[in-house]
Amino acid sequence: MKNSPNTSGMEVEEFRTRGKQMVEYICEFMSNIHNRRVTPDVGPGYLRPLLPSEPPHEPESWDDIMNDVEAKIMPGITHWQHPRFHAYFPAGNSFPSILGDMLSDAIGCIGFSWAASPACTELETIVCDWFGKAIGLPNDFLYFSEGSRGGGVIQGSASECILVCMLAARAQAIARLKESPAHSHLDETALLGKLMAYCSRESHSCVEKDAMICFVKLRILEPDEKSVLRGETLRQAIEADVAEGYVPFFVSTTLGTTACVSFDNLKEIGPVCKKYPGIWLHVDAAYAGNAFICPELKYLMEGIDYADSVNTNPNKFLLTNFDCSCLWVRDRFKLTSALVVDPLYLQHTHADTAIDYRHWSIPLSRRFRSLKLWFVIRSYGISGLQAYIRNHVQLAKRFESHVKKDSRFEVCNEVVLGLVCFRAKGSDKLNQKLLSAINDSGKIHMIPAKVNQRYTIRFALAAPNATNEDVDIAWGVITDYLSELLESKARYIVLYEREPSVGIYETVRLLLLIGQSIK
Description:
The protein has 519 residues and is an alpha/beta fold. Helix content is 44%, strand content 11%.
């Protein structure tokens, strides 16, 4: 009799062994990440020649798989947890969060309804209330607040948070228009064409994409000289659109913009929205919202009482691994009424008394994401998370002081959290060359942004355990490369002034040599 084939891939005893090895590998990886190049030195398609063109027919050994991870996968990784990674906002990461994800994966439930896994739903509700209280949201946004119609939910990203809120606002607006004598004769397609949403030019690009998905018009407004959207700008736009027959229905504001961490003026914007019945005011605080757990930073959310919905991403600035984006709404019934689809096979006997989160989001299937946030909050405590955020703020201030002390550079934003926007004094082209040279070196990694229509460089504190030394090393790299650029430019000017009649061939040769020296 033939033995039955091994279809499990890994039995429990091997998993116990390999699991311990994987934890050890992760510990070594995290402890020694600073020895790796922060960005990969590979080109598009690098991996294809390194892997077989067909999947393996027979099982392969775990040792071979892990050898390939180190030899073939790791060379193509951009290390977001690297102490020299200063490009985007932090990609939240911590050991408690990793362990929470491990347990979530092991439990393997799909929490689309309370009945599908009661703890999955109830922990999410409780943790969202915990976090909402910690950042100082009004009680209307908390599920367990007396008389509240609101509550929180964990989405996959800020893009999803804004999308579901825009969908809910759209549904409310369409319903109102259908009841209006002036519009009751129009079908939904015609009504959609009248809806107008608003955001700042500094808003995340997902607002524009979400408007495309919702088939509504979006007016992108100009912020002030500090990249802040003001109430008067919104008022003028709304009045002009109403005069043209449009129906304002959704305003997306930002606390902590992507380019420069500016804060839209909610105290001005809120009253404007209240003048027009039915406008849904959303606050996207994906990065900065986490910082509001610090009492000294709560002033940044002034005007939040006007909001209908708020989101922030613990997977950015709160040591929690992606994906984990918290959304709170003032009226959960307005949200769910736009998203309810209730086939018989998803119904259960407690539907009238329990939350079914499938009605709060686009996907039906949902992971047990609240576990990792619960682990993080309990392991660090609010005090530990405050200390982590304050460290990033202090390090940003340290970098800002370096920039201000060097007359060749200038700071381009108001530094309040963990981001400094700066540039070398001179042309945009000089700054493009500077950033390109730095990133090509692989020593540190940063990205550009437009601030007040000028090319700037973003220096973001991203590493969980960033230190003063990390900031000082980064500043040394930046100044060294600027010095090289300026010296190369000076050498060319001197050469050209000495030999102004030099031929085109010689000029090109000199430029090529200078280009090589910059690299």
